[in-house]
């Protein structure tokens, strides 16, 4: 520590980012004079002052944000680049609704990109978080709540015997790949175009020119050498999959997949494709990694893997990655698998992985409360039915306006495409009608319905969305399709 810094610490016994000042003697407070209750202002006056003095518009906030935050946002999709226009700055949310800086209310179909499966401000979740906050924000030492959350995940997902908790989906996916490589002693991995697994270097890849060549980075700052072991294939393409295994099978550590892809809108891996993928992985000793950061505890209580297990006897992935819903809106993610594979992880094994805030006591309280609510009998049946009623309603409204619209949903997750049929892979998704989507998005936003601001994103319904909210959404869509 440099001498100047030490002096600073000595001077300010509690470090702060403010200027260093000598402690002043605080004069004993004189008793406050009793204040008269303030005069009640008229509602008009209060409203006027709220708009003119306190509040900036979305536009003004966006301008201000762009001065100090690149693009004005802390995650790119929030900038509305795909659809154009001004991002809404959210001030608060409750149940199925969010309010922006101009106090406009929206029915929220993003739900923080999945986590808010109970809606905003569920009382049981708030209570658990508030209690946890008073007990301490972070300890950097183990807690019982981490065990409870791990036990809950192990109970809910067959095939998982142990989990490690981390703070983001990116971190979980990155760690799962390191674990797969460490456990198999192999380097190569397969991912699929249009699947997103967070922004770890090795995963920011697009397909090379042929199967013999590995991928190219999709981001500046990722050296080609870092992605030289990553092979990118077309989703739902069995032929490519077989060719890739024939050529690289013995060198493959793992195949990572979003079983129902939510980062190219909503695309299911077809059953025959998934079945063949499982066979090939087993045959060649590659680990099948399910990235269920979005689908986990969202499409069903057992995640997308339970949907595939229901159709393919004995089906299970080797490693599962979770995030979003398991944190219930707080930074929390996890990866898990068999005890045998997890033994490779530090401190037991040679695969290093760590995190200062991993298993954070407030985040685990939030996640546990959320999982407790969604595990209640009938929760997913009701959520799935409500979500289905939304996409069915959208499709009927589109049909009435002679607009081609393909829809799908599973549990509380949905997708819709301005196309005659459901796309099966990334290029088909990107070939759907973008201009139409963007018009529809803004027409809905104007009418107080907040959908994901890009045609390649999925949508989310929460338990707080009522039949009336769905009906209001469909009524807005009827107008938007006609516009
Ligand atoms: C959101 C997401 C991630 C990344 O999670 P972060 O918490 O944003 O890092 C990874 N995989 C999938 C499938 C996701 O949807």
UniProtKB/TrEMBL annotation:
Record EC number: 5.4.3.8
InterPro entries: 4pyrrol_synth_GluAld_NH2Trfase (IPR004639), Aminotrans_3 (IPR005814), PyrdxlP-dep_Trfase (IPR015424), PyrdxlP-dep_Trfase_major (IPR015421), PyrdxlP-dep_Trfase_small (IPR015422)
Gene3D superfamilies reported in the protein's UniProt record: Aspartate Aminotransferase, domain 1, Type I PLP-dependent aspartate aminotransferase-like (Major domain)
Entry-annotated residues carrying N6-(pyridoxal phosphate)lysine: 324
Basic residues composition bias: residue spans: 20-46
Keywords for this protein: Cytoplasm, Isomerase, Porphyrin biosynthesis, Pyridoxal phosphate
Region named Disordered: 20-56
HAMAP family: HemL_aminotrans_3 (MF_00375)
Assembly information from the UniProt record: Homodimer.
Family: Belongs to the class-III pyridoxal-phosphate-dependent aminotransferase family. HemL subfamily.
Protein name: Glutamate-1-semialdehyde 2,1-aminomutase
Organism, as annotated: Pseudaquabacterium terrae
